[in-house]
Design brief:
The complex is a heterodimer. By secondary structure, chain A is α/β, with parallel strands linked by helices. Chain A has 3 domains: about 5-145, no CATH class; about 175-255, no CATH class; about 300-510, 3-Layer(aba) Sandwich (Rossmann fold). Chain A has 16 helices and 15 strands. In chain A, strands 12-10-11-9-8-13-14-7-15 form a 9-stranded mixed beta sheet, with helices on both faces. In chain A, strands 1-2 form a two-stranded antiparallel sheet. By secondary structure, chain B is mostly helical. Classes of the chains: A alpha/beta, B mainly alpha. The structure holds zinc ion (ZN) (2 copies). Chain A: Keywords: Methyltransferase, S-adenosyl-L-methionine, Transferase. Chain A: Belongs to the MT-A70-like family.
Chain lengths: ~500, ~800
């Protein structure tokens, strides 16, 4: 057995030696070695010689092999932990070029030695020319490449979402000024509703504006709702469809015009698309974060408990993957009965709700800093701040001039806190901005639900805190003091809730 | 399993033939074992209507057996036959017709008190699936089956014969409430009183009031577990009562294979389940596994595929096995602990230490088992199909020990299924490890992936199998109430042999690869856990030397790599004890070497510990820092106080640097060390180790643990270490992050984007943007979904129509 032969063996097989089933085990490697060179001087090969050869290689090409045992001591269970094949190849070349002469360590200078303090070594690495073929550089480059590689999971998660996300119908808005003006004259309006266009006016319009009929079939049109009290010169109402004083407001408001058959087509198309998606669900090629019954599992209907969160036992609820909380921040305000103030909010035992997961906390104005503080104290790190850019009926940003001292507020903030290391999260699917229309006062956009559902997967348990009845949603558990009673489907939660109600001290509190 | 009519006929004929032979007085052990084995293949359905009671009327098979001299395990064989003849109504005449004749032949009873009273079903269920009758019969000795027959079963049969069927039943219901507490009596009731039970059920005012309602409840809980033997009509009654959801459609679904597999998936999806709180799920799991066993693998795969499971069949089974083993091990630990507490309360103070000892005995599975066999999932909603009715109250009364028993049976069933599947795969020449690379571009990664797949597959099996073995070990070594008793000793035997069976099947299927993985796994685990070391040795012993023509031994002798892997494993752990001997003598063909005795000082041993140096440091530092540390930890624990104390510290995700170079921690020398050396360095600390280490060097014979406190400070340095570093690094981080942010603010001057223009936002002065400024018609308004969703769902939109793409603002 020659060292050169061992070297050759290592170079050819380096990949497999460290993997299962050998795991770099020296004895096993020796067995493989024996089977590789059966015809050669097999009789002379002993494990001692083999380990001697390895030791020589180690000595000559420093750093080419990493063994778990000290130099000179090959134990029964010695392992090769690392093989730097480029160094071995270099050594092999050297041997061949020297034509069998004995090579010594000085013939084979692998570069500088890793000595000195950590700092010196770090500096050494930094000072080197990046193009040098030093083994550290090769390793460093490998490491960098590895670190910068975007894992396939990101792409896969996106694609999966693309295939299975439920589709919702969408009708584009017409932006043609001419259409608007024309429709304003021919569509009859009564109170706050639109009538259908009389046939003769329609054919008249067809002549005047050839594209109109076609456009009506494809798009949504907004028609000014002119009332006797409307003063067109004032411009559009800031609140548009959310305006509380429609009957007296002098600004212009709009009505939507969507032909019925357009609605039908869209809903049919949506249905078809969803059906296609549904069919793709049972091929779970990428299953990260999915429970094993992902495909067959029925969605849980919406569940809720009406309660005063300050007196509620959170352990009743169990654990959740994601939590939304939309507290009424009230730094200097008088509180309606049943809402908790900031200190009480901080005292809530949020830590019982999640072992690991994400928490979304809506914050406003100066509560932003407080929210971050609260999250930290509940055991979360603040990951992101999602912005909700508010738009109105006409898909424009809203500038009400009502809030904000220096600049007008046109967005709201949602802090995202992370607890533990939930590796089941599907990362990098959504962005940290939501652009969506306002609805009732303080009602938040539904887009958030989709975002969270994509993040945590379809059947994960999700909780909304301080929710109202419009927050109820399949798959979600909602808690709040303005909810209509109690509705629990999960029997374990129900059982715990009943036990909670039955507690004597609680019954006392209630009465 | 569906049996063809021909097979069925043949079975019945051979049983009938055996009965005749016995009746005629030709008794031999082989025939009896064969008969029992054949009876094991029967079920109530196959037997239905096959025998006329008149056919068996004059038969007496028991007298010849009892009269036969020199028959081994006579009591046990008679017991098993009585059990079989009792559970099938068709065979009962064999007992009723002749019991008076052969009762005198029974050995006179010992009048020992029966601590355990097994019923017929317990006995027959031992034989069903792993029908190695010759192995089980001797194990039944533990049951004292002879006494059970004499004291429990036969008196009931005699009373039954004397009182007439109906009379005895009614008498029992009215007089003997003990039935529900006595398994033997319950089984007798289920086996013989079908019509009485159904009659009573139909009389509404009686069926819904005690004592019958209670009795029926108990009978249902028992009867539902024995679908194979209990009369179909009665079984229906039981299962409707216990499990029915109230809707017919649902009940039909419950019979489908879909449902059975969904139960497995539900168990796997909720690894945190406390089975004591889910008796219904456990019952379903038992029934599911019971049914799955009878279904051929192609059908299982087909159905599982249609269900879109993310886990393969083997993965599901192994995960279930692992979860059950783990739960049972934890239960065992808790029982130990509870018992320990009881002991502690009874004992005086001096004896307290004994309790501490028992506490540390708790069995544990290696922690990486959990994370590597299960997938990482968020908390998942419970499936309503299992828990669809508010009837948990009804099933709630299932006792803890009943649940443990069920879980145990589930575990054994799933092991049996694994073994059966492996066997089936071999029969149809299906290799789960076959790696099809046709049509794939082969590169170096191909083989890496192949290795990884094989490793994962083997780990999947080995983790669950080793968990079962650990459980088995725990049961045989501990004395807690759940596993006490002869019945459990027998179940444990069966658990062990079922597990071994899967191991054997694995080797049969995967040969050298299987064995190599097994040995490597055992070696890897043994380094972490000595329990697993002894289990591994027991396992290897059984695999290699239990019979003369061992497959494992053949494999071993053919493959050098595997051979030397085992050799090494044995050499490392050989302590000269008996269990190692066969390896040396029968395998390596050498004599077992005598263990060498070496004496080592404890301090020399301690120096081998990883992080010994830092532990030393920490211990010396603790002396100085302890008060401060304690305050810190307290603050972490008590949330309320923490608020006040740390409110100054705010985490700022935007300015906090991701990487803070760690500064070397300055070590504050303890008083003792500073007296020894002026400039304390870590080395100095090690060499002149302060207390408590120094003590050992001086006197190694001294018992190291003098008081509890000492003990804590010695063996828990790692805990203190973590609090120390976290406390230390916090201040460090604070400082360096400050410096860091200074630098970064100089480097990256925020630049105002060029597109600063007002077009991006609505003009603040024009408070109401009119339609005049809306985008051009040619551009279809996209709703922001592209933005929000990252590009998918292009065709339609997920959100309400009002949202708008942010980029459109720029272009307006
Ligand atoms: Zn238009
Ligand atoms: Zn208005």
């Amino acid at each position: 057995m020659s060292t050169e032969q061992v070297l050759r063996f290592l170079i050819t097989n380096h990949e497999n030696l460290l993997l299962a089933p050998l795991y770099g085990d020296l004895r096993s490697i020796f067995c493989v070695y024996l089977s590789c060179f059966q015809d050669d001087d097999i009789l002379a090969a002993t494990f001692q010689l083999f380990s001697k050869a390895l030791q020589d290689i180690c000595d000559i090409a420093d750093g080419s092999l990493a063994l778990n045992s000290q130099a000179g001591e090959m134990y029964q269970n010695s392992r090769v932990e690392f093989i730097d094949v480029s160094l071995l190849k270099l050594m092999h070349e050297k041997i061949n070029s020297l034509g069998g002469e004995r090579i010594k360590r000085r013939d084979f200078d692998t570069g500088h030695h890793l000595t000195g303090s950590h700092l010196e070594r770090m500096l050494c690495i930094l000072n080197q020319d990046a193009n040098e073929n030093k083994s550290e550089n090769i390793l460093l480059r490998k490491l960098q490449k590895l670190l910068s590689t975007c894992p396939g999971s990101i792409q896969l998660a996106k694609e999966r979402e693309q295939h299975i996300s439920k589709t919702v119908g969408y009708i584009p808005i017409c932006t043609n000024e001419k259409h608007k003006a024309l429709l304003a004259t021919i569509v009859p309006t009564s109170a706050h509703e639109l009538g259908s266009i009389p046939g003769f006016k329609l054919s008249q319009a067809k002549v005047n504006c050839p594209g109109l009929i076609d456009c009506l079939q494809r798009k949504k049109h907004f028609i000014p709702n002119i009332k006797p009290h409307t003063d067109i010169s004032l411009g559009d109402c800031s609140y548009l469809d959310t305006c509380h004083k429609l009957n007296s407001c002098r600004y212009t408001h709009y009505l939507q015009y969507i032909p019925e058959n357009l609605c039908k087509t869209i809903s049919a198309e949506t249905k078809l698309a969803n059906k296609l998606n549904e069919n793709q669900k049972n091929y779970p090629f990428y299953t990260h974060g999915n429970c094993c019954s992902n495909f067959v599992k029925q969605d849980l209907p919406e569940q809720w408990i009406q309660c005063d969160v300050r007196k509620f036992d959170f352990t009743v609820l169990g654990k959740f993957s994601a939590v939304i909380a939309d507290p009424a921040w009230n730094i200097h305000m008088n509180l309606p009965y049943g809402t908790c103030n900031d200190n009480e909010l901080l005292e809530l035992p949020f830590e019982t709700l999640q072992d690991e997961g994400i928490l979304f906390l809506w914050v406003t104005g100066r509560a932003i800093e407080m929210g971050k503080e609260f999250l930290t104290k509940w055991g979360y790190i603040v990951l992101h701040e999602i912005s909700w850019v508010k738009t109105n009926q006409l898909s424009r940003t809203i500038v009400t001039g009502r809030t904000g001292h220096w600049l007008n507020h046109s967005k709201e903030h949602l802090l995202v806190g992370l607890k533990g290391n939930p590796i089941w999260l599907n990362r990098k699917i959504d962005t940290d901005i939501i652009v969506s229309a306002t609805r009732e006062t303080s009602r938040k956009p539904d887009e958030l639900y989709g975002l969270i559902e994509r993040l945590v997967g379809p059947h994960a348990r999700k909780l909304e805190f301080f929710g109202r009845h419009h927050n109820l949603r399949p798959g979600w558990f909602t808690i709040g003091n303005q909810l209509p009673g109690v509705c629990i489907h999960e029997l374990d939660v129900k059982k715990r809730y009943e036990q909670f109600l039955a507690k004597p001290e609680r019954a006392h509190k209630h009465s | 399993m569906e049996v063809s009519p021909q097979t069925n006929d043949a079975l019945i004929d051979s049983i009938m033939g055996s009965f005749e032979t016995l009746h005629r007085g030709h008794v031999n052990a082989k025939l009896l074992l064969l008969l029992i084995e054949t009876l094991g293949h029967l079920n109530a359905k196959m037997l239905k209507g096959r025998f006329q009671s008149s056919e068996l009327k004059g038969f007496d098979i028991f007298s010849p057996i009892l009269k036969c001299n020199g028959l081994e395990n006579k009591d046990e064989i008679v017991g098993v036959l009585v059990a079989y003849c009792s559970v099938y109504a068709e065979l009962q005449p064999l007992i009723t017709g002749s019991v008076a004749t052969w009762v005198p032949l029974l050995r006179s009873a010992n009048h020992e008190i029966l601590y355990f009273r097994p019923g017929f079903y317990t006995i027959v269920s031992l034989f069903g699936k792993n029908a190695k009758v010759s192995e089980i019969i001797p194990k039944l000795l533990k049951f004292n089956l002879g006494d059970v027959v004499r004291q429990l079963w036969i008196p009931q049969w005699i009373s039954f014969v004397n009182n007439g069927k109906g009379g005895y039943g009614r008498k029992l219901i009215e007089s003997d409430l003990n039935i529900a507490l006595n398994e033997g009596k319950m089984d007798f009731f289920i086996a013989t009183m079908k019509s009485t039970i159904i009659e009573e059920r139909n009389v509404t005012d009686r069926s819904s009031s005690p004592p019958f309602s209670f009795l029926f409840h108990k009978l249902s809980q028992r009867g539902i577990l024995f679908s194979r033997w209990v009369d179909k009509g009665l079984y229906q009654e039981f299962s409707t009562y216990l499990l029915s959801s109230g809707s017919k459609k649902r009940d039909q679904e419950m019979d489908s294979l879909n449902f059975q597999l969904e139960i497995l998936m539900e168990v796997v999806d909720h690894p945190e389940t406390n089975y004591f709180e889910e008796p219904k799920l456990v019952t379903f799991l038992y029934l599911s596994l019971d049914k799955i066993y009878d279904i051929p693998c192609n059908q299982l795969h087909l159905t599982l595929g249609a269900l879109g499971s993310t886990q393969s069949l083997f993965a599901l089974l192994n995960m279930v096995q692992y979860l059950l083993s783990k739960f049972l091990i934890d239960t065992g630990n808790i029982c130990e602990l509870l018992q320990g507490t009881q002991i502690e309360m009874q004992l005086t103070k001096e004896k307290n230490q004994k309790w501490y000892k028992s506490k540390n005995n708790s069995t544990k599975l290696p922690s990486w088992f959990h994370s590597s066999i299960l997938t990482h999932n968020p908390p998942i909603t419970k499936s309503l199909f299992v828990y669809d009715k508010d009837d948990w109250l009804k099933i709630e009364s299932t006792s803890t020990s009943q649940i443990v028993e069920l879980l145990f049976a589930c575990l054994i069933n799933s092991l049996l299924i694994s073994a059966k599947l492996l066997k089936e795969y071999r029969k149809i020449k299906l290799d789960p490890l076959a790696f099809d690379i046709s049509g794939i571009e082969v590169n170096e990664n191909t083989f890496k992936i192949e290795y990884l797949i094989k490793e994962q597959y083997m780990d999947l099996h080995l983790i669950s199998l080793f968990s079962s073995l650990v459980l088995s070990e725990q049961i045989s070594s501990c004395t807690n109430q759940f596993y006490e008793g002869k019945k459990n000793a027998l179940s444990n035997d069966i658990l062990f042999s079922s597990t071994m069976n899967v191991f054997k099947e694995l080797l049969e299927s995967h040969g050298t690869i299987g064995l190599h993985h097994l040995i490597n796994f055992a070696a890897r685990m043994s380094e972490d856990d000595l329990t697993i070391k002894s289990i591994s040795l027991k396992l290897l012993n059984a695999l290699l030397f239990d019979n003369d023509d061992s497959l494992a031994r053949n494999l071993l002798q053919k493959n050098a790599i595997v051979y030397q892997a085992l050799h090494r494993f044995i050499v490392i752990w050989d302590d000269g004890s008996e269990i190692f001997r066969p390896f040396h003598e029968r395998l390596f063909h050498t004599e077992q070497p005598q263990p060498k005795a070496t004496s080592v000082t404890i301090s020399a041993l301690l120096e081998l510990l990883p992080n010994y140096e830092s532990m030393l440091q920490i211990i010396s530092e603790q002396r100085v820092q302890k008060p401060a540390n304690r305050a810190q930890t307290q603050c972490h624990r008590e949330k309320g106080q923490c608020v006040l104390q740390t409110s100054g510290y705010k985490f700022n995700p935007y300015s906090a640097p991701s990487f803070v170079p760690a500064k070397k921690t300055t070590i504050e020398p303890s008083k003792e060390t500073s007296s020894l050396t002026e400039q304390p360095s870590p080395q100095a600390l090690i060499k002149r180790s302060p207390e408590p280490w120094a003590n050992y060097r001086r006197d190694i014979t001294k018992v190291p643990v003098s008081s509890n406190q000492d003990r804590q400070s010695m063996f828990r340095p790692s805990i203190d270490y973590s609090t120390y570093t976290s406390a230390g690094s916090r201040t460090e981080q604070g400082q360096s992050s400050f410096a860091f942010s200074n630098i970064s603010s100089q480097i990256s001057v925020p630049k105002t984007p060029d597109m600063s223009s007002s077009t991006m936002f609505s003009n603040p002065w024009e408070e109401s943007p009119s339609m005049h400024s809306t985008p051009n018609i040619s551009k279809i308004v996209n709703t922001g979904k592209n933005y929000i969703l990252g590009g998918h769902n292009r065709m339609k939109n997920n959100s309400r129509a009002q949202s708008i793409h942010i980029d459109d603002f720029e272009q307006t």
